[in-house]
Structure formats: C-alpha cells, structure tokens
Amino acid sequence: MNARVITSRPEKFRSYLKKVWHYRSMAWVLAKRDIKIKYAQSLVGIGWVVLQPLVAVAVYTIFFSRLLNLDTAYPYVLFVVSGVIFWSLFNYIFSQGSNALLQNQDLIRKLYFPRVLLPFSKVLVAITEFVIVFGLFLGLLVFYGIPPSLKWLVLIPVFLGIASFGLGLALLLSAATIRNRDLHHFVPFLIYFGIWLTPVFYPVTIIPSAYAKWLYVNPMASYIQWFRWGFFSEPIHTFSWTGILLGLIVFFAGIFVFKAQEAKIADSL
Amino acid sequence: MMGNSNILEVKGLTKVFFRTTNEEKKEAFYALKDLSFDLKKGQALGVIGKNGSGKSTLLNILSNIVRPSEGEVLVRGKVLSILDIGTGMHPDLSGRENVFLRGELLGMAKQDIQKVYSDIVDFSEIGDFIETPVKHYSSGMFLRLAFAIIVHLKADILLLDEVLSVGDIGFREKVKHALRAMSSETTLIIVSHEIHTIREFVDTILYLGSDKEMGYIFSPKKDFPFDKFAADLSTIQPEEVSIYEDRDVVLKNQKVDENNTGHLAQFTLEITSGAKEVYFGIQVFNDLDVPILTSVCQELKAHKGIYDVEVSLEESLFGYGKYTIQCGLMFQENEAWTVLPLSTEKMTISYGEKGSKSYPKEVFNGILQPTLDWTLTLTNPS
User: Could you give the CA distance from residue A167 to residue A170 in angstroms, rounded to a whole number?
Assistant: First the structure.
C-alpha cells in the first residue's frame, strides 16, 4: 500500500517533480475541458481560432505593407503571418496561464493536484490552436512556392522556447498574484506594449543598426527572428542568444518561484 | 505491514491562520490545535462540532489541499475527497461528458469510468437526458448525476464534507444505501451537521471544540455523550440550498402559532404558472434532526394565484422537547417521486413545557409519545 505523509515541511524539488509527473494526465483533463467547453458553446468556435489572426494579418498588411511601404525581402503576408502566429501563441499561454488559478478557484479549493498543472494545461490548449493556424501558414508557403528545407526544423526549438517563456512568465505572475491580486492587471499591459517591442508586423531593418541588437533582449524577438531565419533565410543577429538565455531563465525561475508559493495558494484564495 | 493496520494516523495536527487586524498586526487563529487520532481500515468516523470548529480545515488537510502548520498525517492508501458535490462539472457539457470529466478530476482512469458508466447512468435515473447539456437539467437531476458518480468511485478512504445534506429525501436514502455498501471496503470520514446522518453511518466520533483550549473528543460512538452536545449541534443550519427555484411554487411566508391543542402552522404559497401534479407537505424533525413525521396536503391542481395553507399539529402526537418544521413539495419527475424543500429555514416548536401530563415526558425515550386510546380496567377489586 502506498503510504504518504502530509506535513508542514516544504516538499523537495525532486519529489515535487515526481508528483507532477504522477498527475500529468490531469493536465490533459483540464485542457480537454477547456477545449470542449469552448467548442460546446459555439459552432464557430473553431472559426474564431482562425479568424482572430486572420483579421490581425489583414490589418497589418493593409497598413504597413500598402500604406507605409515596408520593405521585406519576401512577401509581406508571409512575414507578418510568421510573426502573428507566434505572438498569438505567446499571448494565449501568458494571459490564460496567468489567469488559470483565479479562473479555477473552485477546483483549487475542492480538489488536489499539483497547481502548476493549471497554467500548464493552457499550453496544451494553445498547441491545438497553434496546429490549426500553422496548417494555414503551410498552405501559404505552398501558395507562394517556398521550397521545403531542413532549416524548417527550427520550428521545434522556437515553439518550445516560446511556450516555455510564456509559461514561465505566467507562473511568475501567478505566484505574484497569490500575494497581491492587483498584479493581474499587469498582463494586458504587457501584452499590449510587448508587441511593439517585437518584430511582429515591422521588420528589424527599420530599426537603426546601432540599436537593433537591443531588440533581441526580448526573447520573443529572438525566437521569431530565428524562425524567419529557418523559413525565409533572414540574417540572424548573434545577440539573439541573449534573448534565448533570458527566456530560459524566466522559465526556470517561474517553476521555482511557483513551487515555493504553491502551498500557500489554497490559504490565500 | 509490521502488524500496523492503521490506515490513517494524525499526530499533533495544528493549523494556524493569520488574520490581519486593522493595525497591521497579525492575529493568530487556531483552526486545529494538537489533534491526534488513528483510524483503522473499515472504521467510519463522523466529525462534528460547531461552525468554525475546524471540521472543514481537517478535511482540507487530509485532502492535501491545505498544508498543516504543525504535526503530520500519515495516509496509507488512496484518498478520495468529496468536498463538494459537483466541482469541475460544467453546464455546457452533456451528462456523459461531465461523468468522465468529474471522474477524471477525482483521479479515476478513463477505462475505470467506462466500466461503471452504465451503472452511473442507471443510478442517476436520468435516462436519455444523459446526452443533454447539464444546464438543461433541473437541480434535482444535476444532484442525482453528481451523487451517482461519487458512489461509484473506488478508494481506501472516502472523505465526505456535508454533501449528504442536500438533494431530495428519496434519493438521499438511495445514496446512503450505496455508501453503506461501500463502507465494508472503504474507510469513511464524514463531516455533517445532521447528527442523525452521523449516528447512522459511523462507529467513531471526533468532536472538535470551537474553543481550542477545550480540545477535542475522539471516542467510539457508543461512548459519545450525544445528549451533552445535542443542543450545541442542532442549532446549526445547513448551508442554504436553493433547489426550489425551478419549480413554479414559491413560498411567500410561513409561521407557526400556539393554539389550545398544540400548534397551528400557516403557509402562504404563490403558484406562478399553470397546473402541475404537485403536492405540498411538511416534515417534522426532532432535536437530533431525525425526520419523525411527514404529512401531505391535497394536490395543488392550481390556477395561478396566492394560497393559504394551514395544518394543525396536536400536542398529543409529540413527546417532550423541541421540534423543527420544514415544508416542501412532492412531485413526479421522470417517473420517480421527488421531494424538494421549499425553504431552508425551519420553524421551531416545543412541547411538554406546559405539562398537561402529571409525569415528565423527557424521561422516556420514544421519539413519538402520542396520547393513544388506552383502556384501564380494574378486574379484581380487593
């Protein structure tokens, strides 16, 4: 029989990870619940997944490509779509993930499972949406006759990097919200201004070259540019490693800080 | 197993909460203090105590939801904690989807749910509605489905917090029956305000005092001084359950007055939409919250409007003591009879103090002490 001890002592990190692994199916259950609820409510649910980035792409294309005549070496639509799909991915994981605890207070008060699985389940939901949107992106590549290449494999590290950065930020913010709920208002603020610091709809080339490298401190800028390097052979700045390093630091810091706060969640909600 | 058959060991368990008072000082509040007890497999424990005595905190700690401040709990086996009937169930999903969702949230594997799925549907008496989104269910149907899931789960320790006190009476009996069947393999820990539920199910009592200096009492049921605490415990009202909203009958007013033969209970009902096969009735509970009497008025084949209902409760029916009255509706739903309370507020009456009898009724044990038709004949005068 499996014996367990419940004490006041903080849990060792290794046994915490074991527990998370033991409860891993809970993340799927929570994600499935989110997805089902979303699509049970409306038949157009799946349409929304596509419609939102589509509108963003249309707006950016009209404003920046037509009106401002921004110059990209390949079709502007491909440029902006490659930015928008990853920004949406980050947006979803960060905003939904940081809200997951507040959104599921009833579960937290009445059921036990490692709480980190709540923000994490949002990553799984994001994957399903990403797959749909990325399928459309592949369609565009075929339409514009871009030949496949081994460099496309950069998709995998870029995806993992953005997902872990978004999750890390969500965990940091969740942990902070446990202490002070007002901090939650920080999320839309960061999303709103973050996109201006990321080359989603403008190319890096419009930034004077003396300052361009500072853009790469932003992990999102680094990851998106690496993606464009893989798919459209854009030059990549070595300074982008700073952003990637920072992204990983945020991810691990998020896990550690969240774990340290986890025991207090039920007491303070 | 080293000869140790304890399934649960609680040692020196303490939980302190800190409330911030206005001067930025933190005030310590002990929800539990130095609590210790052991449970063996197959034992059934009832946790009782006033509101705020730490009952829910104890269950939260055993469920791993809240960490203790001091002390430890050793658990041998799988714990299933039902702190709320339907946590995680979602109105937009169908009954079927909710069965799987709820089961999985409670830690069951999908294949195991599949095995008991048809039993759950049968037990819930929901029939074809199982494919309908739960938001279209009546509250009674929702509760039946939620309970059906709970009684089909397997665990070594089952924690139940107040969940037996909701739902209609007929179905409640069915749930209790199922729980009794489970209790041979499962160690039950029940928190309830209803002392009669506790007495019915458990063999061991844990009484938590609200004054932490007074501590707690852990004793076999047969040794527990229920009478001493009855007054304490029966005054507590269960949490408000508004499961009468979707009926077309609204209770506008209720009162009870003394008259010369006992009491007269008066109710004002408003029927807000057309006729339905509905009966109005009352239940009378004794001071341990055991329902001892039910009486039903004639069918409400009603037109819309406001109705006055009166019922006389003669003192000759009752024993000495305090009783509470609750009114409700009876009706058929999917061919099963359902009873819904119309109000969570019970009215209190007491008998025997005026003392028309020359002996004190309180010394006798009968729940009912009616004045029956006795004959006393002297056959052999000396």
Answer: 5
Query: pTM of this prediction?
Result: 0.73
CB contact under 8 A, B62 and A40: no
User: Is the torsion defined by CA of B284, B286, B289, B290 positive or negative?
Assistant: negative
pLDDT tens for B20-70 read 666 666 777 888 888 999 998 888 999 988 777 888 889 999 998 888 999
| Subunit contact A33:B156, Cβ cutoff 8 A | no
Q: What are the φ and ψ backbone dihedral angles of B354, each rounded to 5 degrees? A: -65, -30
Q: Chain B within 8 Å of A40 (Cβ-Cβ)?
A: yes
Percent composition of chain A: helix, strand, coil (DSSP 3-state, to 5): 80, 0, 20
What pLDDT is attached to residue A231? 93
The secondary structure of B206-224, three-state, reads: EEECCCCCCCEEEEEHHHC
User: What's the start-to-end Cα distance of chain A, in Å?
Assistant: 33
- Helices A13-22 and A24-41 sit at what angle, rounded to 10 degrees? 50
Number of folded domains that form chain A: 1
Q: How far is CA B164 from CA B39, B53, B114, B150, B370, in A?
A: 22, 19, 25, 11, 30
- B44-48 and A3-7: which strand pairing? unpaired
Residues of B within 8 A of A41 (CB-CB) are 92
> Has residue A121 been placed in a domain?
yes
* pLDDT band of A248, cuts 50, 70, 90: very high
Q: Does residue A19 fall inside a structural domain?
A: no
Tell me how far apart the terminal alpha carbons of chain B are, to the nearest angstrom.
74
Question: Which tokens in the block code for residue A13?
Answer: 């990190």
Environment class of residue A26 by beta-carbon count within 10 Å: exposed (0-12), middle (13-18) or buried (19+)?
buried
- The tokens describing A55, both together, are 């509108």
At A168, the amino acid letter reads G
Range of the domain at A198: 26-263
From the list A5, A33, A108, the residue facing B72 with the nearest CB is A5
d(CA B313, CA B290): 17
> In the beta sheet, which residues pair with residue B72?
A7, B11
Domain annotation covers residue A8 = no
- Pairing status of strand B70-76 against strand B79-82: unpaired
A159 lies in a domain? yes
Q: Is B73 on the interface with A (CB under 8 A)?
A: yes
Q: Is A26 close to B104, i.e. CB distance below 8 A?
A: yes
In this structure, the strands spanning B187-191 and B44-48 are parallel
Burial (CB count <10 Å: 0-12, 13-18, 19+), residue B27: exposed
Q: Coil, strand or helix: which one is A147?
A: coil
Say which residue the tokens 């399934």 belong to. Answer: B7
A161 three-state secondary structure:
helix
pLDDT surpassing 70 at residue B295: yes
State whether B68 and A8 contact (CB < 8 Å): yes
**DSSP reduced 3-state for B340:** strand
DSSP A182: G
How far is the C-alpha of B139 from the C-alpha of B129, rounded, in Å? 13
Cβ neighbours, 10 Å, residue B153: 21
- Alpha-carbon distance of A4 to A10, in angstroms, equals 14
Domains of chain B: residue spans and CATH? 6-234 (3.40.50.300), 249-357 (2.70.50.60)
